[in-house]
């Protein structure tokens, strides 16, 4: 029987916002003709039941991923748990002979990257990493412009990502705020950006020199409480949120928190927060390209500024996702030639998360006969290289020394 003559039997672990939403109900709406859920798993049984109803599936539910894998023998596992738990799920699926799609970051440490790559080699199964940004129409067009040779050989890149006081703060309300769970935003968030760079440049990072600081959240804050809902400073705190005003998050998290104490509105000023909120890195690529990268998390704008500087010209984009003024519902890529004319390429925003990137990624994975001429699908190696860039950045920011990326792929005692 042809691989696509029947629906792909998919199991999902991690039924939080991303699992229940993008990889649950949106996946069925977008690709339901090719996909069926055969199992859902979350260690929080209350969230799990709510997610099953929201997704609209009758698939059996499990609180143990290993039990789900052996009971349902899926074709594919989708991993949407907390970042530091991905490796355990990925290796278990590979060893059960199951292909998988993991949310980014693939994992959070060099040791876990090595374990995943070894398990993939040993089992011969396939790992896909959900780098949805590669799939936005704008990223695809930038890749095409770079491949056209229009700006000559790329020599440097300016890449600056801005998270605003809503989205940026959200990372400080939850587990992302702790190095041990997210690897820091150099891993959790920047994995997207480092992956985009690796894909755009078709080269691997060689060495990273980074800096990081905590200027605004955590112990830098003026006061603190355990969570917004019960906070005595609610009336004077700019970061106060009322979770009840978001019916989706309220449904998935608020009542289920009585099972595991996982609140969506924990205080952004908790003393114990140990990640940076302000980061920069100088990255040297094996191709010789020099990258200036930064990530800021309490800005009045959400979006990014990106420019490729080549021997014959420059490609530039300023993408705004949220800002205090009106912007058109499109991106504009500027292609500038040295001593020549500039061209504006306008790309309308597409529906769906990440300007259409989420839906395009899903169709690439599940639509029969999908082709991949630009190499947008990302495997475990791409997942690892982008994580290791972040791991190197954290180490560099801590030691003040540049850190080489590739040696992190080798076993510590390997010759
Ligand atoms: N690609 C993107 O743009 C994008 C966007 C948002 C989130 N993400 C990624 O998706 C993943 C999930 O994000 P989220 O915001 O939904 O997180 P979340 O913490 O809200 O949800 C994760 C769920 O996994 C469950 N879980 C955790 N450990 C588990 C375990 N060992 N076994 C079973 N269940 C377990 C939790 O109970 C929770 O319900 C993260 O890796 C995140 O980085 C990616």
Automatic annotation (TrEMBL):
Pfam families: GFO_IDH_MocA, GFO_IDH_MocA_C. One of its GO terms (molecular function) is nucleotide binding. InterPro entries: Gfo/Idh/MocA-like_OxRdtase_C (IPR004104), Gfo/Idh/MocA-like_OxRdtase_N (IPR000683), Gfo/Idh/MocA_Oxidoreductases (IPR051450), NAD(P)-bd_dom_sf (IPR036291). It comes from the Bacteria. Residues 9-131 form the Gfo/Idh/MocA-like oxidoreductase N-terminal domain. Residues 143-405 form the Gfo/Idh/MocA-like oxidoreductase C-terminal domain. SUPFAM superfamilies: Glyceraldehyde-3-phosphate dehydrogenase-like, C-terminal domain, NAD(P)-binding Rossmann-fold domains. PANTHER family: BILIVERDIN REDUCTASE A, BINDING ROSSMANN FOLD OXIDOREDUCTASE, PUTATIVE (AFU_ORTHOLOGUE AFUA_4G00560)-RELATED. This is Putative oxidoreductase protein.
């Amino acid at each position: 029987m042809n691989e696509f003559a029947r629906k792909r039997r998919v199991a999902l672990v991690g039924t939080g916002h991303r699992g229940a939403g993008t990889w649950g109900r949106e996946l069925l709406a977008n690709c339901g003709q090719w996909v069926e859920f055969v199992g859902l798993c979350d260690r929080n049984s209350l969230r799990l039941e709510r997610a099953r109803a929201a997704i609209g599936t009758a698939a059996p539910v499990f609180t143990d991923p290993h039990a789900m894998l052996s009971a349902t023998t899926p074709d594919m596992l989708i991993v949407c748990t907390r970042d530091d738990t991905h490796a355990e799920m990925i290796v278990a699926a590979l060893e059960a002979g199951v292909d998988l799609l993991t949310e980014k970051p693939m994992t959070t440490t060099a040791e876990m990257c090595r374990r995943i790559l070894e398990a993939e080699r040993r089992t011969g199964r396939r790992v896909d990493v959900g780098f949805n940004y590669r799939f936005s129409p704008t990223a695809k067009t930038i890749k095409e412009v770079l491949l056209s040779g229009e700006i000559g050989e790329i020599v440097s890149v300016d890449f600056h990502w801005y998270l605003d006081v809503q989205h940026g703060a959200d990372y400080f309300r939850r587990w992302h705020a702790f190095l041990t769970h997210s690897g820091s935003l150099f891993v959790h968030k920047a994995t997207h950006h480092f992956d985009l760079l690796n894909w755009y440049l078709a080269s691997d990072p060689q060495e990273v020199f980074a800096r990081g600081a905590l200027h605004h959240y955590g112990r830098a804050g003026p006061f603190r409480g355990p969570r917004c809902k019960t906070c005595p400073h609610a009336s004077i705190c700019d970061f106060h949120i009322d979770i009840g005003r978001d019916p989706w998050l309220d449904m998935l998290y608020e009542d289920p928190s009585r099972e595991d104490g996982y609140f969506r509105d924990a205080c952004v000023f908790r003393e114990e927060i140990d990640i940076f909120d302000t980061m920069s890195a100088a990255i040297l690529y094996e191709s010789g390209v020099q990258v200036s990268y930064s990530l800021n998390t309490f800005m009045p704008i959400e979006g990014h500024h990106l420019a490729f500087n080549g021997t014959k010209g420059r490609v530039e984009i300023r993408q705004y996702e949220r800002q205090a003024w009106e912007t058109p519902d499109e991106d504009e890529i500027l292609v500038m030639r040295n001593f020549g004319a500039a061209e504006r390429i306008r790309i309308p925003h597409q529906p769906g998360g990440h300007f259409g990137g989420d839906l395009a990624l899903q169709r690439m994975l599940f639509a029969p006969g999908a082709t991949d001429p630009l190499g947008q699908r990302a495997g475990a190696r791409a997942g690892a290289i982008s994580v290791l860039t972040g791991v190197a950045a954290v180490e560099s920011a801590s030691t003040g020394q540049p850190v080489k990326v590739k040696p992190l792929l080798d076993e510590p005692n390997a010759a």
